[in-house]
Amino acid sequence: MDEITSIGPRLRRLRTDHGMTQTELADRSSVSVELISKLERGARQTAKLSSLTKIARGLDEDLSVLVGKSNRVKRVGEAGVLAVRDAVSDPALLPGLDADDDGEPTDPADLWAQVERAYGAYFAGHFGALASTLPHLLSECRITRAALGPGPVAAAYAHAYQLAACLMIHTGKDDASLLASERGIHAAAEGEDEFRLATLYGTYTWILLRMGRHSQAEALAVRTAESIEPSWSTRNPRQLTAWGGQLLHAAVVAGAAERHDDAQQYLAQAKAGADLMGEDRHDYWVSFGPTSVAMQEAHVWTAADQPTRVLQASERVDPRALFPISYARHSLNEAAALERRRNVDEAIAVADRAFQISPEWFRHQRFAGSVVTDLTSRKTQLPAALRRMAQACTEGQGMQANE
Fold this sequence. Notes:
By secondary structure, the chain is an all-alpha fold.
């Protein structure tokens, strides 16, 4: 069910650029030639993410290239998404070169306050505001690290890079996202908090998942979880959050790879930790607890096309325990399940809830476009909310075409 819309012309162009027939691409991708043909002709507007990942592999292209993932962020101030990318991949950061930064070091407490504000923008889906702050924040962290040493600035620097990685993956800059995530891991490793470091590995796992690199993503999540597996007598809540977050990553990856039994095993382990914790927490900007487990269980059942189980899991989700865009993403899963159950009006209301949380976030979501397409096919006359969501998705596709 995790799908994408309007890829037909792009698929046809990529296939012909690579000199392949539909049959050759289908053979290389281990999908049916019928699927390739229907997508290219527009007879089918959507496909499972697992199928799209196979097709992208068959084309030897990143998944983001196939689905047309791109920057749709409206700039706030002078700095935009490209400025963040340039800050992440600044040649001055290469070994043996001096960054040649001007300016005085910043109080580490002030850097941390800036990181907290930046996370507020990210989880509210205000990507333009986030992009406007990150280049300066990264520069301040670098200057302060040079002046005070890595220890005092390790946490702030790691999370600034983590935010850059998240912004890059949302805007179709996969390689820059991986680079930012790796830089964040190195920064976190200069600190003394092994659980913070584990959550940075979690971001890398999430990026690999978004790129369709399922086996690598799952292996990293499992290995990281095993490295910090808690002793049940210790009950360190931060350790539980970091460990449980990795298991939830593994569950989602297994679900995306259509290995639903393995996904349920990961979820069962995570649920045991969440039950031990008893409540949802946000440590290192990672959510973990009963609601987080239920939310990811709904996500896994969405991938398995089991709408009844999605809605059953959703009953255990407390919106107050989630960051705004996390609840928005869960709402899309719920809307998709309702649409599959033919509760179309309720599905539109739930999808609109996701849209209202952050229209900017919404138009960057492949799955949002899929849900909107499915809902519009159910209606002969579109209600205002559905027209509004469809317009946002259409504007996003137009922006892709112009780039």
